[in-house]
Amino acid sequence: MLLLHGIGRSLEDWSATLEPLSKRYKVHAFDMVGFGRSDKPEVGYSSDYLRDFTLRFMDMLGLGKAVLIGNSSG
User: Fold this and answer.
1) Engineered SS bond to 70: which of 4, 17, 42, 44, CB 3.0-4.6 Å?
2) Global confidence as pTM
């Protein structure tokens, strides 16, 4: 399960949700690049860029597939 926060938000949006979900599922939450405590490179933060970042994150963790849960535009 991959929890995606909305634009201008952070993984802290999931603080109340992470523990209950993790009792039944393998759960990952992260700050998307440019948000929260992540690096903030000078790039175009388009939907495509954030999608590709998320896919690279999944590849890094070896996640071939995941259930995506988002809030706002996450």
Assistant:
1) 4
2) 0.85
